[in-house]
Design a protein that fits this description.
The structure is a homohexamer. With about 325 residues, chain A is of the alpha+beta class. The first copy, chain A, is built from 9 helices and 5 strands, in the order E-E-E-E-E-H-H-H-H-H-H-H-H-H. The longest helix of chain A is centred in the C-terminal third of the chain and has 29 residues. Chains in contact: A-B, A-C, A-D, A-E, B-C, B-D, B-F, C-E, C-F, D-E, D-F, E-F.
Chain lengths: ~325, ~325, ~325, ~325, ~325, ~325
């Protein structure tokens, strides 16, 4: 989108609040589709047609792009709400989503279970949980975090899959690790996040998310499955619970206990590493748009990150780099 | 006990390991009864009559008291094991116990429920949990901690009762607090400790205690009761769980979430305060024996504590101070 | 106040600084009365009638309420200064004040002395200090802090009284505590704050407040009274000084020494707890206006706080909740 | 070795200091061979034959095994020094060594270079450094640390190889990483350790190790090679230096800069993880001897570690577990 | 400069970015000369004459001073670029510079070498390094830091000289210190800063500055000189390197090793002290303009600083205070 | 003293406690004179002649030196107490003392006052305080700390003098500092230590030292002098109090406020630096005895310190190094 360009399209209304200018009240709005978000304004007197605006609604927007303080914004000329109930459009089409569709991520996760779970009770447990209707539907849409990393539909699955892959790769280097318990831990370590965050257009913490945290929520959701899985050894169940409880590594990061087995150390490392690499990846994506080598200061990492010059590689075409990322520019 | 005094009594064998002197192998042993512990030696050749010594057994000991490096120890001349199964003696008689019997502490706790729980679902929940056979039997014997504070039979109940009393007293000063939710939180905040520690003669952390911690264990034990208590509002249940989860106050002290309601702040303060006062109380008890005003350095509090001179009080007789403490000298 | 409403009233001018718009210079002002504050603007050319504006003055304001960026502000049409010296108005009427009048708070504090101080030298000391003209006049108006908690006239007394009540309540639960020394400590723990903060319209730190801190200032103000109180035991005086010096609990919070007696621990807990509950109380007050369950992020507590659903209570009418708070909306 | 067993063998004298008993002066000594260490005593009057004892010497020892305070020690009857110069014995035979011989570890490292280094200047650099006579001879014997992890001959190579393997495995999961720069970083990240520690029988920090640290020493040793490698891009050299400088991850752990590229994050994780797994591995080895599930408190990890029950695996025979560890019992 | 004043002068364009107003795009610019900086605006349609504006260029500016939000800014009517290549003007004339010219600072530093370096190899080393063409030209212009302290041309030399003087003064009080090694350490402790920061108009970190830090860069630059200085004892070289490596005092502040000799402690103190005094000095300079006694909150020092009333001194005339500071008001 | 040497001399009995050996009770004693301390034993039956032993007494000891676990100890054959009251001996002769006599240190401090105090009220204040009988007598004997640094008679004066000298030297480098206020601050910064520590043979914290700390005690002792010094400006008094209150630099080190003036920063640096240099100096003294280059781990500095090779200095004779230290070997 560039200044002056007309807009005539469907968006999700992600946020709306009223302001007051000398010319009367106006609406500050944010629209969203799968490719990103754009801020907008509905100026008076147009604004006065909308006494309230309900976020999370779908609407047809007409207007054009303006530049305000070096940022594009949408001046809305006309705005009409659409009924989501008619099924003509799918809300999910308006949320940022992982580049690999959640369904495919889930299948890859299930393939890992098939490939590595030789002990039948482990395999059964994993399949029961992943196959449970509520769990599955939540995992399919859950983001990986509120804002910092994997903050998009499928983000939780994408993170879970990468953590599981890292764990399996490390089992090749350290063969003494208990590969199957570790895989179960990787798959379920962030299960509680599917209940900690509301997901959807207004991805925010739920009350139980804020009051209990996703580690406690994960234990709570997993426990009934463990109770029903009689064939799984009690010691293995306890180890799995320990992996969940300790995966943040330190009390400071909200783990009630710290890792006490090599598998728990590994899971913590894999979780931490994948979150950080995803954050850097998103920064690099932004930097690539402007050709910068240094990112702006990143609060979560407490530093600027650097895209170092790559080792020359004749065999590798830079173009076919897989798109691993969802934050495309709106309607790019 | 004083050097030279003969001993001829029943004790619990709390620990035993073999040493090697120039004169042959000997046993380092620790005996225990409800009034405390004493170290002892079984010298060679007597020692060689016992190829192994099983801790936790009851035994009849004959010998006399010696002074070794300024400490009393028991030189064992004869040692005979007793069968616990015959019911003639109760193992509990040989463990240090709270000054008020656990049964009485439990009754006082139930009285608090009766006095303050006006909302029936809260009352029902508390009674169901406290009345549950496994819970009750564990609470009756559980210590409050491994070593630092309330480390004796009934210690957990004693601590729980004081925390509940402090919370009720603070509700009088701050009437906006939700008195009943806070009481439920006080009663159950350390419930998991009854499973975190093994209690008994060798009071140590259990595997699940070390791998999950008592906060997680408490949630796990409480959840089935909450699930069965249909009449209790979902929001109150969530608040109660939050009180358990946050009662250590900071991530650093193992709380997965920090207090987010005034009741959670209060519970954390009450818990913290009672633990510290109990530690100081034990130090004062020791200091009273020797008349010192300053305690030795206390690792847990990271300081020495001081018994300040008391405000003169004619109405109060110093003698009838209630004995609030279990660590009496052995056979004092 | 709502947009469009005319205003014609007396206010205290709390702050004033000049801005520059395209239409010429204008004044950003803040007016204040006992019910709160409101920002305002004096636009050009009206603004040019006031080359300077002295804060802390009383003035009669005419104008009307506008909405600017979702906040009300006062557009000033006319502004006339009043002479404070004529005694017709009392400046105190324009400062936010504790809901219970300072005079009543002081009486309740004196009642506590009467009720608990059985040792005459303690009683004498407390009465001498509280009865001292300078101390009394400062305590009557002193705020509890610059911004965070109890930041209103009478705030220091309100905080002092609650801390004293908490300490007395805890003495009921822990009868071994030295109730009278603790009460003296509670009453004087923040005495220095009456000199650390200037109070009044521009409540800010004084030079001696910033350079010495209120703990040191408190000792300095208390010492002459202690010197004159010959009948009070030297050890009790030292204990009282220790209570003042250690009441922040940790070096990190500015205590030159950490608590070393049970009374010092208790005083620190009570002080800390009351400050935090007051902060939460103020947040709840704000949240009640908008019906929110979660507060905005609170920098001092480093978290959002939550108003949990209350336990249903038939006997308690929600309406007669005592108003414990001063931050009412302006002219509400 | 068991109490009473006679000893008649060659050892390295690892430490010796004189004590004083009632019967005259005696020597406390520690003997060492490749399988471990044993403490011993040379009692008076035998002790008086040796006015001094030079550590690091080879000696023939006759005596027998005693049990002292539950530990075996060697009572020396006769002790005769051997000349190392005659070449009949190799000192290295008396030092604990990695289970895989250093020569093989070095070859595996060179194989990784061959397999992954496609960019010729990287390959050339690695081969020049690893092929340099001083570097190679130091790497062949260097321990990985003073005491905590990999503290044996070949330990540095073993650690380096595992870190390199972990990095290569993670490049498979995160294909955007610069595999070759990362491999160079992994190979050289601890190069300075070969100069920071003296290695040998008295493995201790050197003066330059203590005064500069191994990060600075590594840069110093690598720089001349980088200067000579004209074909390697300046930006790649800078990235490699950054990998060395930042590999401890945080200032707190002695890194002058923190990781600012994804490769630097990965290298830090791999380094940290391998060190911790090696420590746990050594603890498990010790625990296996006694069948314990919990390690003693480990100061470096600040916790006890747990050997969880393994997932049952029919296909895996427990017996052919590769011996990955050097701390066998002496003469086991 | 005061509002309304016309401007017609040469400036360095320090920064420029485009904004968007209702009246079209405009340029936010910052101009700079040796006396300070001033922000400005080029409004539409004038702004549209400049599709891009290159920072670091010299330009002739016509316009006048406006007041905007209590700050002066320059409304640009005309702007014409000058060619730096013609040599008619010197860019250095437009950068803030230390009050004492860099050339004089360098001479004073060399005088210290002459006065204190009695050991010839030390003297030779210092002269070689300070006389090296690249080193000298960088030192002549290098700032002491990016923003916090000594952020002006000559700032690095000014800081280096003061640190050296402090060290020499302390050697008088502590005669056991190794004066010459300490002087060498003082002179070279921040050498790497001349490469860590780009200096000039856009004083920012270089890539190697961010990726390696100035401690590592200093070692790298110094090492070739040390290698060539054969007569200097190896132990003294190592001590000097230690002084550089440890001068930040703690790992937290980026030192890979902490001070381990008295000289290293002293150098760290002197460095820390001079940086802080320079920051306070700049704050005082600002405060003097407005007569304030308290500075605004200073993020780096994490406090406000206070100008205490001075001890009366008849002999000292306040007027001839040497101007030790460069941040004069623009064209003052 | 060497093993076998007979002893027949006067000592101070510094500590005594009873042990129990197989041969009966014995006394562990420590004797002390100005040159150091030595442990000793009074074996049974000799020990039984002394039912109690009062520490702090002077006694004549006969016996000889033994070697026990590599340390010398004194086997006491005969021990006879001396009456201190007869004035024949001076207890001070048996305490370790600063190498320069306290009287000389005090004079040098007074010389500094004369040299630098040009403002008469400052000079008067300093002379009044230093001339006060109680202050002077306490300063003459006070140690600088309990154990860590300057722990000997005159240690407080020695430290005070060095801090004052450092401050004066820094005023030469930074002429804007308020030299006279800084000197007053240096002289009185640790005044409270003369009351915080008991000094003498059993140098330990006093009750008021532990409960208030030396900063508070210093203010308390100084305040009456300040009150009496009417001619000294109120602002200068406040600055002086701030220097005392903030001289530990950080809350963490017990300062209720942190330095807010340049003089306060300087005083904190000087204090910190002199304490650390004294600790290192003592370590070097010990290391010189054995020729070691590295100290053992020093808990207070959290590191080992290193005596670097000195820059060769023909003009300086190593022999006439002034003895700046009191810890000579006993009777060396």
């Amino acid at each position: 989108m560039s200044p002056g360009q007309p807009v005539n399209d469907l968006f999700l209304l992600a946020s709306a609040n009223m302001g007051q200018s000398r010319n009367g009240p106006y609406w500050n709005v944010t629209f969203q589709d799968a490719t990103g978000t754009i801020d907008g304004k509905i100026w008076s007197p147009k604004s006065q047609e909308y006494p309230t605006l309900e976020t999370g609604s779908l609407c047809h927007v007409q207007g054009y792009v303006e530049n305000y303080r070096d940022k594009n914004q949408l001046k809305v000329d006309h705005l009409e709400f659409r009924d989501l109930a008619d099924g003509a459009v799918d809300l999910a089409d308006f949320l940022p989503t992982s580049s690999v569709p959640p369904q495919d991520l889930m299948e890859e996760l299930e393939d890992l279970v098939t490939a590595h779970m030789k002990h039948k009770p482990w395999k059964t447990l994993c399949r029961k949980v992943l196959g449970d209707e509520e769990v599955r539907s939540r995992l399919m849409t859950a983001p990986g975090a509120k804002t910092v990393h994997h903050a998009y539909v499928g983000g939780l699955l994408e993170h879970t899959l990468q953590v599981a892959r890292v764990c399996m790769a490390l089992c090749d280097v350290y063969p003494d690790l208990d590969r199957q318990t570790l895989l179960a831990g990787a798959i379920f370590h962030d299960l509680g996040k599917a209940w900690e965050l509301s997901g959807g257009a207004a991805n925010d913490y739920t009350d139980e998310g804020r009051l209990l945290g996703h580690i406690e929520l994960g234990q709570e959701k997993l426990t009934p499955f463990l109770n029903r899985c009689k064939s799984l050894d009690k010691g293995l169940k306890l180890h799995l619970k320990h992996l969940l409880a300790s995966h943040h590594g330190e009390h400071d990061f909200g783990s009630p206990v710290r890792p006490k087995t090599p598998e728990a150390f590994i899971l913590h490392f894999a979780d931490n590493m994948d979150a950080k690499l995803n954050i850097i990846d998103q920064a690099f994506e932004e930097m690539d748009k402007t050709g910068q080598e240094w990112s702006p200061y990143m609060r979560f990492l407490e530093r600027n990150v650097y895209r170092a010059p790559a080792t020359p590689d004749k065999s590798k075409k830079q173009n076919d780099k897989p798109e691993n990322q969802c934050l495309l520019p709106l309607k790019a």
